[in-house]
Structures are given as structure tokens and as C-alpha cells.
Amino acid sequence: MTALVIAEHNNKSLNVATLNAIAAAASIGGEIHVLVAGQDCGAVAQAAAQVAGVTKVLSVDAPHYAHALAENLAPLVVSLAPAYSHLLVAATTSGKNVMPRIAALLDVAQLSDIIEVKSADTFVRPIYAGNVLATVQSVDAIKAITVRTTAFDPVATSGGSAAIETMAAGPDAGLSQFVGEELTKSSRPELAAADIIVSGGRGVGSAENFKIIEALADKLGAAVGASRAAVDAGYVPNDYQVGQTGKVVAPQLYVAIGISGAIQHLAGMKDSKVIVAINKDEEAPIFQVADYGLVGDLFKEVPALVDALGK
Amino acid sequence: MAGIAIPHVTYANLEDEMKILVAVKRAIDYNVKARPKSDGTGVDLANVKMSMNPFDEIAVEEAIRLQEAGKAGEIVVVSVGTAACQETLRTAMAMGADRGILVQSDDEVQPLAVAKLLKAIVDKEQPGLVILGKQAIDDDSNQTGQMLAGLLGWGQGTFAAKVEIGDGSANVKREVDGGIQTIALKLPLVVTADLRLNEPRYVKLPNIMKAKKKPLDTVTPADLGVDIAPRLKLLKVTEPPARAGGVKVADVNELVAKLRNEAKVI
Ligand SMILES: Cc1cc2nc3c(=O)[nH]c(=O)nc-3n(C[C@H](O)[C@H](O)[C@H](O)COP(=O)(O)OP(=O)(O)OC[C@H]3O[C@@H](n4cnc5c(N)ncnc54)[C@H](O)[C@@H]3O)c2cc1C
Ligand SMILES: Nc1ncnc2c1ncn2[C@@H]1O[C@H](COP(=O)(O)O)[C@@H](O)[C@H]1O
């Protein structure tokens, strides 16, 4: 039994989400190999080789792997798949994009967003916005899996000494091309990796007012998140969205401000260790999941909280 | 209300233009909180409000906008499931789709099988573009579009925030973890719709009446030669552990004290 984990990276460094996927592979048992496909990504392969528990790194270098385009990455993984019992990738937008294509080409089902490994063929995954947990068993020879990162503690980045095997690239499928990207720039921690997240919702009222949320985030050294309503209204960029169809987070502390607590939002944050809600409506559903609820006007309470923290 | 129906496209042109296929799933309404059945064998859907999967409304809307912009011809909507999915197809046709196909099955059809059924229909209908939702809000799989693209050997513009159809190719802006990514893809193409691709229109009453007259064909998986046997066995469903009830704090000072001394998270 050997698992192949597809590394997510930017050709320079390994995305920590990969460490969560490796952790899931480790709880399945068996050997763990990591695929690093990219362009000039030698440093990533080196880093992957040191990760605890990894026994082999497959390194493939070609320009058409630079952006993990599914049309090129999927056939590469498919060509390697017969040697493996499990294929895993973190359930990031990149992982969610490529793994189903791989699964279909192998004619196997995909297990999406697993949160627990019961055995080598049985896994738990949330469905219906996390209101139901399904235990599912795969009857396929190869298990194609995406891993909910918040459910598996990352493995250590050191301790391993895997061999790096350089492999020949497959052809460019010629179906897709990277044109460009507009990445959100922020000096704050990343949502996915932050210990504390301060999120704002429609109640914040405008992009300008979001400065109130940011001030609290900076005071706490936190990342900034948002509800869908706040993103749709243009207060913050798309990638701030926390929820069923946005990012799933589970920080030590999640502060929800001016967020009502719709099912879809709760799906993305209710596994946080401690939840604080600040909302002027004491009936808001967010209070049902909050450890500490403060009923009040955010425009008064949040600046007061920043002051109180300063003391 | 009554008046002369003016079709917004001239049907003679439709054949020359790029056909669009849209996959629409009948799913639990997004306002409903699902619960497991008490015996843990499945999700309790008795008397639960069902609607078109919200992402699929966005997919249908996108197809209509492309047609309205003169970039597309006929819009065919496809749903896989029980006879009740006819309602979903009628809703899509009331929004503006031209024709519906129900792939009828009373058995559970998992994403891989849905993708195979859709491929069989694509092989017949030869659309230039297939639009799906990025995710069904019941199974939360986020797979079917990618699987279909793989089976067809086409490009995939997943999690689309913007689609620009060009000559033989399309530019798709995608919602990715770090922001927005733009990729160019060859046509024909599979697109999966994300939340901010568009805002779906409301269905107007006269259009609901008109939609009843639009063609709706029914086929079975057997007709399409597709084996839909599930590959994932559902062993049981459970409710996630509930969070212990919290407390209300009187003011920010109490909050800070609790976070420091009780929760010890700051
Ligand atoms: C297919 C689909 C997918 C979705 N995915 C997501 C998702 O991933 N993430 C997500 O978040 N949502 C998602 N949604 C949207 C979700 O259903 C809700 O509409 C959304 O979460 C509401 O955002 P909100 O709480 O900011 O806004 P609202 O529900 O409008 O709540 C605003 C809150 O602010 C409070 N408020 C207003 N003013 C003040 C003030 N001055 N001081 C204090 N409190 C104030 C109000 O009392 C209210 O509770 C999705 C919806 C659909 C259909
Ligand atoms: N039974 C179905 N009938 C029609 N379309 C479907 C069906 N299942 C999935 N789809 C399409 O595939 C998308 C993604 O679904 P999923 O992969 O199940 O999350 C949905 O938004 C639909 O567009």
C-alpha cells in the first residue's frame, strides 16, 4: 500500500496544505510518496524530501506544469497512478480542480474533503454544508482523495530524508494556458494558516468601514475573513470568503462581526476552537455557535475592543 | 399581463451558433438545514423544500447571457435524477433555456456516473460549451465538471468568475485561494460557475407558462449505455458534534478577560 500525495506549491516553496494532506496519508498507513510537478521547482522537491514520513519524491520539471493546470497535471498523475493505492491532494482550489479529473480518467470515484480516515477504504466526509457527516467506503482499486486541511494536523517539515527521483515530463495537452493572476496582497497572516481570524459581514456596511475589522485583526495579529455577503458587496476580495463554498478554517479564535451565521457561513468556521460573535441582533444564529457573544453595535464595540486589548 | 410573446432570439440562427449545455441538479433548498435520519441510513429529505442547486442557476444565467450577447445558440439543460427533476428543468427553461433533457433514474447517481451520462449527451448534442455549477450543495462534491472535462478530453474553466468567449478559445477568470487566476482554454470547453459569475434573474410568471411548452425529453442511463452503479458505499450518516452552548458577555472588558483567562487564546 503506497500513497501518492500531489504537492501544492508556487515553484519556490511547499504550500503548508500539502503537510495536512501528507498527515492524512500517514493515517491511512503505508508508504508515502510526494509528486512535485512544476517549473524550476527543485527547491520544492528538496523541501518535500525532508518532510517527516515521506519516503520518495517524484520530481517533474516542465514549463507546462508551472501553474498546476489540470489539463496537464492530471494525465501525469494518471500515468503514475497504477503504482499507488491512494492519491491524495489538499482540498484547496488547486486540489479540487485537478483530482476529479484524475479520478475520472482512472474511472474511479473521488472522496471529497475527507475529515477522518476510518480504514484504508473508509473515510468520513462532511456533506450538506457540514450538517451531516457521511462515512463512505470506496470499492475502487485506487482511492482518489481530497483532504480537508483543518481536519489533519500538519506533519513536520523536517525529519524525513526521502530520495528524489527525477522523472520525464509528459506532453503539454495544449488545451489550456496560464494568462495571469491577481493575487490579494496582504501583510497579515493567510486565512488558511492563521491562529486568529477576524471576519466581517454585511453589517460592516462598506469597504471603508472594513478598516474597523482590520484594526482589530492587526491588534490580534489575525487574518481577515468575511461572509459571502461582504464579498459580494465588494467590501473585500473574493478569497476572503469563509464558508461552505469558500474557505474552511479552524483557528484557535474566530471573531465574527456583523455576520448573521447562515448555514453556509457556519460550515466554514464552526470547527474553530473558540468563537466570538459581535452582533446587534441578539437573535442572530451566530450566537448559537459562539462561545462568547457580545450583543451590540459593531461600530461602538469593535473600537472599544481594540482599546481594551491595548490595556 | 397577457400579451404577444416575442422570442428574444430568432430560432433560424440557432443552429449556426454555439450550442450550450447546462447541467442542473435538483437539491435541497439552500435555506434548509439538513439532518440525518434517526437510523443513520441517510439524510432526512421527507417534506424538505427542494430547489435548483444555486450554482446551477448561475450556470443557466451565464448561458442565457451568452445567448443574449449573440455568442451562443440553443441552450439545452440536462438534469439527472427522479421524475421530480422535470420541475428543475422547467425552472431553467422559464429562466430562458430552450430545451430540457431528463436522464431519469430513481437510483442514486454519484458524480462519476453523472459525468458519464453528461458525456453521452455531449457526444450526441455536440455543444461548444458545457456549464455546470462548481458544487452541489447537498453532496458538496465539487467534482462533476472536472470529471466531465476529463472524460471529454476538453479544457476546464472551474470556479469561474468571468467567461469571455473568443474565436476558438475562451478566457476564464477563476476564483482561486490567493485571488483571481486567468487562463485561456480551447473551445469546446467545460466551465463550472462560482458565486460571482453573475446574479441569476428571477423567473417571471409568463415565462413559467411558456416554459411548459418547451421540449423536454426523457432518457434513461440504459438508453445512454452508462453503468451508474455507485462506487462509494454510504455506510452511515451522523450529526456532527454540537458545540457546547456559550455565554453572552456584558461588555468588551469582560470579553477580553474571558479570552485571556478562561479560553486562553490571546
Ligand atoms: C450557494 C450558496 C453558497 C454560499 N456560500 C457561502 C459561503 O461560503 N460563506 C458565506 O458566508 N455565505 C455563503 N452564502 C451566503 C449565506 O447564505 C448568507 O447569505 C451570508 O452568509 C450572509 O452574510 P452576512 O451574515 O454577512 O449577512 P446578513 O445575513 O445580512 O447578516 C448581517 C448581520 O449583521 C448584523 N449587523 C448589522 N449591522 C450591525 C451593526 N452595526 N453592529 C452589529 N451587527 C450588525 C445584523 O444583525 C446581521 O445579523 C452562500 C449562499 C448560497 C446560496
Ligand atoms: N444529478 C445531477 N443532474 C444534473 N447536474 C448535476 C447532477 N449532479 C451534479 N450535477 C452538476 O455538477 C455540478 C457539481 O456537482 P457536484 O460535483 O456533485 O458537487 C452541479 O452544480 C451540477 O451542475
For the structure shown, list the relevant keywords:
heterodimer, A: seven-stranded parallel β-sheet, B: 266 residues, alpha/beta, Rossmann fold, nine-stranded mixed β-sheet, two-stranded antiparallel sheet, disordered N terminus, binds flavin-adenine dinucleotide, binds adenosine monophosphate
Report the order of strands and helices of chain B. HEEEHEHEHEHEEEEHEEEH
Shape descriptor of chain B? globular
Shape of chain A: elongated
In the CATH hierarchy, what is the class of chain B? Alpha Beta
CATH fold field value of chain B: Rossmann fold
User: What is the total number of structural domains of chain B?
Assistant: 1
Q: What can you tell me about this protein's structure?
A:
The complex is a heterodimer of chains A (311) and B (266). Chain A is α/β, with parallel strands linked by helices and 311 residues long. Chain A contains nine helices and 16 strands. In chain A, strands 5-9-4-1-2-3-10 form a seven-stranded parallel β-sheet, with helices on both faces. A five-stranded parallel β-sheet of chain A has the order 13-12-14-15-16. In chain A, helix 3 crosses helix 4 and helix 5 runs parallel beside helix 9. Chain A starts with a strand and ends with a helix. The termini of chain B are far apart. Chain B is built from seven helices and 13 strands. The longest helix of chain B is centred in the first third of the chain and has 15 residues. Helices cover 27% and strands 27% of the residues of chain B. In chain B, a hairpin with a 3-residue loop joins strand 7 and strand 8. Chain B has a nine-stranded mixed β-sheet, with helices on both faces. With 266 residues, chain B is α/β, with parallel strands linked by helices. Strand 11 of chain A pairs antiparallel with strand 9 of chain B, so a sheet runs across the interface. Bound molecules: flavin-adenine dinucleotide and adenosine monophosphate. Flavin-adenine dinucleotide sits at the interface of chains A and B.
